[in-house]
């Protein structure tokens, strides 16, 4: 399948999954999984930088429209997209990244994908939750929410990779 | 120029990131009430604090003038004291018992920011919700109208100045009780215009213009200004009058905020009629 069509389909499916299912999971107010970041994680390596930022903005904005928080997810996603190239560089594999493939868990192994996802999800969630409360008072609570949600989202992201990889 | 372009190309990722992030935050602050309040409140706290500092300095310089004003007002009030009136045995007075019927409460406040040079001028006062100021209250200085309270924070309030093209005040000519509405045309801060005065009404230069009783914000009879020029009627049934405002808006320092204790009763009654 053409990777453009594939990404568009993934975009739509993830937005729908997020707004119908994952937005309603709020365990004790501290765990809110945001699986939709998977879209930004799985964009091809050679995506041009401007397109990466723009697509991330579009993704965040779509989620915002559905959850009535215009600007919140969008800003977090753009922040995450901004960090993506640097993190890819920092944890690069021995050879250069091959072009035209996606960075799923089955390409460079579990430990690589885990690190990659962990850093980006942590960055995204930190930005999102801090912007959500919009102040640094009670930072302990915010930090706890960031940590718990990151763990939960990370589990979902990794699990989803195994489910798809098996196919 | 070439270097600049090279710089932009080299850092286009970061520049684009900052731009998009700014757009996001703009959207965030504009579309979410919570974020908007947090943003505006911190903003107001900072600017309000700075304005207060500036005013405390300029107030010190204008103390002489204010002292003069206060002593004049003192004399005026002394003259109104009961001891100054001769009591003649064969006459009697009705006193309105003001304790049980008080309608207007005055609260003094200080002007900490003001402008006269824009189309829409606003005034900031150093008192707010915690001191009992609410939106829609009238503001006067020396018994002349200044404006209407627009919004309040905990310790500050903003006033829609009479010098604001969005404000219209119901006014009347003192000598013959003809009503019109007074607005500012945005040109000279000492002059406003009174419209909707029928052409047949006789008006002389110097006639006093006061607030009417139609408004639920100001008590009747507050001074607005004096007629300074009657514009020729342009064929219609109404004409405009140029009013010389009694207040010098450029020198406002202390004002009184008027609270109407019976306002809700009046508005409710009037609302009932419309149903």
Descriptors:
heterodimer, A: 167 residues, mainly alpha, 69% helix, B: 275 residues, alpha+beta, Thrombin, subunit H, 6-stranded antiparallel β-barrel, globular
Structure in words:
The complex is a heterodimer of chains A (167) and B (275). Chain A is mostly helical and 167 residues long. Chain A has one domain. Helices cover 69% and strands 0% of the residues of chain A. In chain A, helix 1 packs parallel to helix 3. Chain A is globular. The model of chain A has no long low-confidence stretch (mean pLDDT 84). With 275 residues, chain B is of the alpha+beta class. The model of chain B has no long low-confidence stretch (mean pLDDT 83). In chain B, the strands form two sheets. Chain B has a six-stranded antiparallel barrel. Chain B has a six-stranded antiparallel β-barrel with strand order 6-7-8-11-10-9. Chain B has two domains: 60 residues; 175 residues, Thrombin, subunit H (Beta Barrel), CATH 2.40.10.340. Chain B is built from six helices and twelve strands. In chain B, 33% of the residues lie in helices and 30% in strands. In chain B, helix 2 packs across helix 3. The longest helix of chain B has 29 residues. In chain B, a hairpin with a 7-residue loop joins strand 10 and strand 11. The interface between A and B is medium-sized, with 20 and 20 residues.
Helical segment count of chain A: 7
Question: What is the number of domains of chain B?
Answer: 2
**Global shape of chain B:** globular
Structural class of chain B: alpha+beta
Which structural class fits the helix and strand makeup of chain A? Answer: mainly alpha
Oligomeric status: heterodimer
**Biggest interface and residues each:** A-B, 20 and 20 residues
Question: pLDDT average of chain A, as an integer?
Answer: 84
Beta strands of chain B, count: 12
What is the count of distinct domains of chain A?
Answer: 1
Low-confidence segments of chain A, given as residue ranges, are: none
Low-confidence stretches of chain B: none
- Largest sheet, strands/sense/barrel of chain B: 6 strands, antiparallel, barrel
For the largest beta sheet of chain B, what order do the strands appear in spatially? 1-2-5-4-3-12
* Strands of chain A, total number: 0
Q: Fraction of residues of chain B in helices? A: 25-40%
């Amino acid at each position: 399948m053409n990777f453009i069509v594939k990404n568009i389909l993934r975009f739509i499916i993830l937005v729908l999954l997020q707004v119908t299912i994952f937005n309603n999971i709020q365990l004790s107010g501290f765990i809110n999984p945001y699986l939709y970041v998977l879209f930004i994680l799985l964009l091809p390596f050679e995506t041009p930088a401007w397109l990466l930022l723009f697509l991330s903005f579009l993704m965040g904005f779509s989620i915002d429209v559905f959850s009535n928080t215009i600007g919140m997810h969008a800003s977090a996603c753009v922040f995450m997209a901004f960090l993506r190239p640097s993190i890819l560089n920092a944890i690069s594999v021995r050879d250069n990244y091959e072009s035209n493939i996606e960075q799923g868990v089955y390409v460079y192994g579990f430990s690589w994908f885990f690190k990659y996802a962990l850093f980006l999800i942590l960055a995204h969630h930190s930005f999102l939750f801090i912007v959500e409360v919009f102040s640094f008072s009670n930072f302990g609570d915010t930090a706890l929410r960031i940590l718990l949600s990151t763990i939960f989202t990370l589990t979902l992201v990794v699990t989803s990779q195994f489910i798809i990889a098996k196919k | 120029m070439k270097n600049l372009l090279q710089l932009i190309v080299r850092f286009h990722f970061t520049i684009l990131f900052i731009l998009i992030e700014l757009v996001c935050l703009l959207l965030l602050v504009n579309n979410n009430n919570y974020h908007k309040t947090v943003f505006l409140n911190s903003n107001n706290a900072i600017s309000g604090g700075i304005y207060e500092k500036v005013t405390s300095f300029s107030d010190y310089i204008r103390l002489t003038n204010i002292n003069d004003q206060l002593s004049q007002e003192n004399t005026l009030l002394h003259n109104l004291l009961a001891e100054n009136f001769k009591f003649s045995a064969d006459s009697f007075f009705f006193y309105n018992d003001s304790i049980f019927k008080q309608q207007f409460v005055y609260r003094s406040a200080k002007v900490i920011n003001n402008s006269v040079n824009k189309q829409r001028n606003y005034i900031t006062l150093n008192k707010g919700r915690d001191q009992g100021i609410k939106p829609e209250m009238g503001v006067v200085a020396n018994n002349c109208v200044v404006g209407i309270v627009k919004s309040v924070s905990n310790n500050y309030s903003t006033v829609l100045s009479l010098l604001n093209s969005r404000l219209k005040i119901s006014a009347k000519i003192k000598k013959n009780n003809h009503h019109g509405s007074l607005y500012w045309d945005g040109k000279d801060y000492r002059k406003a215009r009174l419209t909707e005065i029928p052409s047949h009404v006789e008006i002389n230069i110097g006639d006093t213009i006061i607030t009417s009783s139609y408004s639920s914000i100001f008590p009747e009879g507050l001074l607005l200004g004096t007629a300074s020029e009657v514009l020729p009627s342009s064929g219609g049934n109404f004409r405009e009058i140029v009013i010389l405002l009694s207040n010098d808006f450029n020198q406002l320092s202390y004002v009184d905020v008027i609270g109407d204790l019976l306002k809700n009763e009046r508005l409710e009654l009037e609302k009932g009629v419309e149903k």
